[in-house]
Design goal:
Blueprint (H helix, E strand, L loop, with lengths): L1 H19 L1 E5 L8 H17 L4 E5 L10 H6 L5 E5 L11 H4 L7 H14 L10 E8 L4 E4 L14 E4 L3 H8 L3 E4 L5 H6 L5 E4 L1 H6 L8 E4 L8 E7 H6 L2 H10 L2 H21 L5 E4 L2 H23 L5 H16 L2
Parallel strand pairs: 1-2, 6-7, 6-8, 9-11
Antiparallel strand pairs: 3-10, 4-10, 5-8, 5-9
Helix pairs in contact: 2-10, 2-11, 5-11, 5-13
């Protein structure tokens, strides 16, 4: 009996480290094949485990918990431990994201994303928009470009009266300011809107046109230096779950998220955009925006940019200073 008791105690002690491991649930609303999942979220979970020596493991849930707009609150309320999403899916909730979504920021998602994280960490987080969660990362996708069924791609008035499918956020304002008729609809419905003639074109990064199989519907494209818009993303963690981790575990997770996560995400979007553009070879005629178009569009969008910067300042953060830092950091990353 004494031998059996001793063996049982030994077994419990040996199992203790495994029992002490923390498993974090990670919500997902995209197909597993989407590069944001396969090349960012999955590697992030692996890096968390490696950085913590296996003490903290992150496990992606097998099925969506709900629609994309609900995901920020899933982390707030502890429905899941970690999640990701698009701030623009919650209109009016986040103003500091304006800084990273305005036109003409840059041609590299990596540069913009790293600069965005640095600006967020130094300034934007002071707005308090994320005080009820732990922010693991913020980043953007690649610059949004213009894709059309037809039209005079050299015309300054190219977008005048053109029905363009857009998502939420600043892209709607960009489209309407340049004379287009915005057609709201989720990305998953883009093919339907284009093929049925509801939309004449779309504002999208190269990656998305390819991923959503829109190339056959869009034989014309205009590439705009710096892009006409960007979309901001977040990766966040439940605050209570974060606080339950040891300082050592927190430091380990911080070492593989933050700027590292922003850089990994930006590099993924750049690769995906390159692949998307390559997939258009022989199928889509890509024309660079003319000097006249850039002059006209830049002038027209100045009030939109100024208004977005002013919205950032409404949070208590100096919007103009934040934009100046963002642009300086983009230049710094591009020079690396």
């Amino acid at each position: 009996m004494k031998h059996l008791f001793s063996s049982a105690v030994t077994a419990i002690l040996l199992a203790a480290p495994a029992m002490a491991d923390t498993v974090l649930t990670v919500a997902n609303w995209l197909p597993p094949s989407h590069p944001l999942v396969s090349e960012v979220i999955v590697p992030m979970t692996e890096q968390i485990s490696q950085a913590t020596g296996g003490e903290v493991r992150a496990q992606i849930l097998p099925a969506p918990l709900g629609p994309p707009p609900a995901h920020f609150d899933f982390a707030v309320n502890g429905v899941t431990d970690i999640t990701f999403g698009v701030q623009g899916y919650n209109p009016g909730r986040f103003k500091t994201t304006n800084i990273a979504e305005i036109p003409f920021l840059g041609d590299s998602a990596e540069a913009i994303s790293v600069a965005y994280w640095r600006t967020f960490d130094a300034m934007l987080k002071d707005a308090g928009e994320y005080d009820n969660v732990k922010v693991l990362g913020v980043f953007t996708h690649g610059p949004g470009q213009l894709f059309l069924k037809d039209g005079d791609t050299a015309s300054v008035d190219l977008m005048q009266g053109t029905k363009l499918r857009v998502g939420g956020g600043i892209v709607h304002e960009v489209a309407s300011t340049l004379g287009a008729v915005p057609v709201e609809g989720p990305a998953s419905k883009a093919y339907e809107l284009l093929s049925q003639g509801v939309a004449d074109g779309i504002l999208f990064p190269y990656e998305s046109v390819n991923f959503f199989k829109l190339i056959p519907e869009l034989p014309q494209a205009v590439t705009v230096p710096g892009g006409l818009y960007n979309v901001s993303f977040f990766v966040i963690m439940n605050k209570a779950k974060w606080d339950s981790l040891s300082p050592e575990q927190q430091a380990a997770i911080d070492s593989v998220t933050g700027e590292s996560l922003a850089r990994m995400a930006g590099q993924m979007w750049d690769r995906a955009d390159a692949a998307g553009r390559k997939a258009m070879d022989g199928k889509t005629t890509i024309t660079a925006a003319t000097d006249a178009q850039m002059a006209a569009w830049s002038h027209a969008l100045e009030p939109v940019i100024s208004a977005k910067v002013a919205e950032v300042s409404e949070t208590g953060v100096d919007g103009a200073a934040a934009l100046e830092m963002l642009r300086a950091e983009i230049a710094s990353v591009e020079a690396e």
